[in-house]
Amino acid sequence: MESMPKVRRPKLSDAGGDEDRLSALHDDTLIQILLKLRCLAAAARTSVLSRRWRHLWALLPKLHFYNATDPRRIRSALAAHEAPALQELVIVRQDASSGPTGAWLPIAARRLSGLLFCHYLSQRVMARRRAALKLPCFESATWIYMRLGFLRLTLPPSGAFARLSLLHLFQLRLHGMCELGAIVSSPRCPCLGRLLVDDVRGVGGLAIHSESLGQIELYNLPDLQQLTIVAPSLHQLKVQDCFAPVARQPVASISAPHLLQLAWIDDYDQNSVNLGEMAHLQRLVLQQFIVYGKDYIASHNRNCALLLRHFECLHNLVITLHCPPDITNKKYLMEDITRVPDVKLLGLGITACGHSFGASLFHVLRMCTAIRRLNLGLIVAPEHEAETVCPSGCICDQPSSWKTRELVLNCLEEVEIFDLKGSEHEISVVDRLFSWAPVLKRMTVNFHYSITENKAEELCQVLLTFSRPEICMICRMPNMSEKVLYA
Questions:
Q1: How many Å apart are CA 84 and CA 435, to the nearest integer?
Q2: Which SUPFAM superfamilies does the annotation name (predicted)?
């Protein structure tokens, strides 16, 4: 068989005679083309197209390194970078076990004038063996996000992050003498507006004194012993799972007179936690109440109830009621909640684990008769996804008076229910909600993702029998592009 003739691949210059039209474009246009690749390695490989492209990567204002195995290459690339300003530096590494992990940090600190995104996926065991990264001062960086896979990080003992507005530290171990609070306070971070610290070890004490911070979010700080925040501009504060284990008494002092939103999803002790005056607070999110439990759980509930009593009036209150799967020989604890602030919007999450939750819902609603909107979330924990009906004679329906006692919610105009699965207990509660709310205008039901469309249509027909002509009834299927079955 006669062989096929080889076809010569045309060069760029062949496209229009001897003219390389692509490389004839202005540098700014070519740089915009390379930026679309969002990967420095891919941008550098374009040098094969033309000699003209050989050094264009060094002019990119944004450098993205993905799966970089040797940090020395990152350092070399930064040293060769020629752009007037480095606006964005993104480094994602699957394995931080090879090479000097922080070799690129000093030169990056000198060049960067925008975002630093550093994401390492090191394993915890390996991370303990690695030498600590020494974080220099990024004097011109505006955003810093660092997820280090629990590598150790040493904070700079001096210098300022003069332009930093957002700092997010995630999965790392702080090491050394310099404390995080000293870094994020105004003298060294005068422009910091948002601080997120999540799953960080080595934070024993956190003292923040900031004139600029507007938002602070603290999650899972297992070594935290004392928290102090003095932030006159703070409008949003979230503290979640930071004072674990429960046996350690939380010690905190918060001075944020203009705070608008507080999420305290952690232990509370009025003798050691001072929240100060929060006259402007509009939204409060609390740690869950345990509906049934032993005596030691009762003290937890009482502390949560004391936090509720700290506030007289709120626009939005979010609380969660948790009923454990096994409530045999456990006490009903909802009576510990004796007062709820005057609220307009109530967000109520309920983890029922197959039990009836009508009594606990009634207990809360009878103290919130002025609410205008109710968001009811029926939470299904992953470990209890396959819920079963509670056994006959279960105490979960006690006290049963909630089914017959009068409750008038004269201001309630809108109810939205999330993750309805259609159990007998759930349907019973929805029925009572219609009767409790004489001025209800809108009821929205979002079914759980596991519900089939046929089952959802059956449930909709049942729910419509409870409704009234003046009520707008909406049923949605979340797993079908938010399909509306009835409206």
A1: 68
A2: F-box domain (SSF81383)
Name the β-bridge partners of 273: 252
pLDDT for res 248: 65
How many helices (H) and strands (E) in the chain?
10, 26
* Residue spans per domain, the chain: 282-382+397-487
Looking at every residue in the chain, the average pLDDT score rounds to 84
Alpha carbon distance 141, 133 (integer Å): 18
- Strands (E) across 202-336 are located at 205-209, 215-219, 226-230, 236-240, 252-255, 261-265, 273-274, 283-286, 289-290, 292-293, 316-322, 331-332
| CB-CB neighbours of 129 under 10 Å | 10
The band of 69, judged by pLDDT with boundaries at 50, 70 and 90, is low
| Cβ burial, residue 304 (10 Å; 0-12/13-18/19+) | buried
Instruction: State the average pLDDT over residues 109-124.
Output: 84
Read out DSSP for 241-266? S-S-STTSPP-EEEE-TT--EEEEES
Distance between CA 399 and CA 358 in Å, rounded?
9
CA atoms of 469 and 7, how far apart (whole Å): 76
3-class secondary structure, 91: strand
Amino acid (1-letter code) at residue 440: L
Instruction: Compute the distance between CA of residue 48 and CA of residue 60 in angstroms, rounded to an integer.
Output: 17
Asked whether the CA dihedral 393, 394, 396, 399 is positive or negative, the reply is positive
User: What length does the chain have?
Assistant: 487
Q: What per-residue string of b and e applies to 1-36 under the rule 16 or more CB within 10 Å gives b? A: eeeeeeeeeeeeeeeeeeebebeeeeeeebbeebee
Instruction: Extract the tokens encoding 128.
Output: 């303990």
Lowest mean pLDDT among 55-64, 134-143, 341-350: 55-64
What amino acid occupies position 247?
A
Supply the pLDDT for residue 254.
97
Higher-confidence position of 150 and 71: 150
Strands 252-255 and 273-274, bridge-based pairing? parallel
Query: Among 318, 407, 316, 415, which residue's Cα sits nearest to residue 359?
Result: 407
- CB burial readout 433-464, b (16+ within 10 A) else e: bbebbeebeebbbbbbeebeeeebeebbeebe
d(CA 450, CA 448): 5
